[in-house]
Design goal:
By secondary structure, the chain is of the alpha+beta class. It has helices at 4-15, 27-32, 67-78, 213-216, 262-272; strands at residues 39-40, 47-52, 55-61, 86-90, 95-99, 125-126, 133-134, 144-148, 151-156, 161-164, 170-173, 187-190, 204-210, 235-242, 254-257, 295-297. Helix content is 15%, strand content 25%. The strands form three sheets. An eight-stranded antiparallel barrel has the order 2-3-13-11-12-5-4-14.
Length: 300
């Protein structure tokens, strides 16, 4: 066997130009280049506006995960249940909770109107019919983690179940010890490090898509649980409305990045392996609750 063909092949290979690595694009550059079709508009009937003195908090509801609770929340909003109530609990590194601060006192509790007084727990749902965009990295709280219906979620293919994850900004339905003791009248928003131990233990009904800073910057209540001892410390809620009940000209026109797009996948990878001047060692990993789901004002 002669070495001449092998040497010739090596010489030819050495003379071929080497393809340059694709230049790194930041997550923002990827988003700036995204087509309009990669963005979706949240449905007005699934969007809540909580009006505070400091501004508006916008919440996208999750009927795909908690249909009965969301239906009750729609009823409560239409009938003005939260109007004139308050944010009465702010626990550091945990939650801001709002609703009727006197809900446990039958003599003072606010009338629930036509809302249902009893609902089943909606901690998880069947995977069937649920599109799930899986993240590339392992998750410590679920066999698989990713996004479904635009919400951070976990799933277990073996059991056929999926559930929302307790990430920053998630909205849950406060309950007592009984699993079926929530109806959506008392809600909380995660404002601290993601308490994933609550996954599949509390019904989650949505997430804040704008205005989270109006909640996370509130003064903390006292230990151990952040309930304000003085009613004057509570943050008053002017009103909570469904966007579908608000005139179109007064709505906050937002768009959310779809998670079934190449833009979303590229953005996730850009954050998994940052290669800008600041990062000296790319992580090669991203946690579910560290994947921001971009929200922007709708372009004219």
């Amino acid at each position: 066997m002669t070495l001449r063909p092998i040497l010739l092949a090596l010489c030819l290979a050495a003379s071929l130009p080497v393809a340059a690595a694709a230049p790194y694009r930041s997550a923002q550059q990827i988003l700036d280049a995204s087509p309009a079709s990669d963005w979706r508009t949240p449905a007005p009937e699934n969007t809540l506006y909580m009006e505070l003195d400091a501004g508006r908090v916008v919440i996208e509801l999750a009927p795909g995960f908690a249909p009965r609770h969301v239906a009750n929340i729609r009823t409560l909003a239409r009938e003005g249940f939260w109007d004139g109530t308050s944010i009465y609990r702010v626990q550091d590194n945990f939650v801001a909770q709002f609703g009727d601060a006197e809900a446990d006192d039958p003599g003072k509790a606010k009338n629930l109107g036509t809302a249902k007084r009893k609902l089943p727990a909606e901690f998880e749902r069947d995977m069937s019919g649920l599109a799930f965009d899986v993240l590339p990295d392992a998750d410590g709280w679920a066999p698989q983690a990713g996004f479904a219906d635009g919400f951070a979620a976990g799933r277990d293919v073996q059991s056929g179940k999926a559930w929302m994850a307790h990430c920053y900004g998630v909205v849950g339905a406060g309950r007592n010890l009984e699993a079926d003791s929530s109806i959506g009248a008392e809600l909380y928003v995660v404002i601290g490090q993601s308490p994933r131990q609550l996954d599949r233990n509390i019904t989650q009904v949505g997430r804040v898509i704008q205005g989270i800073e109006l909640l996370s910057a509130l003064p903390r209540g006292p230990e151990p649980m952040g309930f304000y001892a003085d009613a004057a410390q509570r943050t008053p809620i002017r009103a909570v409305h469904l966007a579908s009940e608000v005139p179109a000209a007064e709505r906050t026109r937002l768009q959310i990045l779809r998670t079934d797009t190449q833009t979303f996948r590229d953005m996730v990878e850009a954050r998994r392996n940052r290669r800008d001047d600041f990062y000296k060692r790319p992580a090669g990993h991203i946690d579910l609750c560290n994947v921001p789901l971009p929200v922007r004002l709708a372009k004219e």
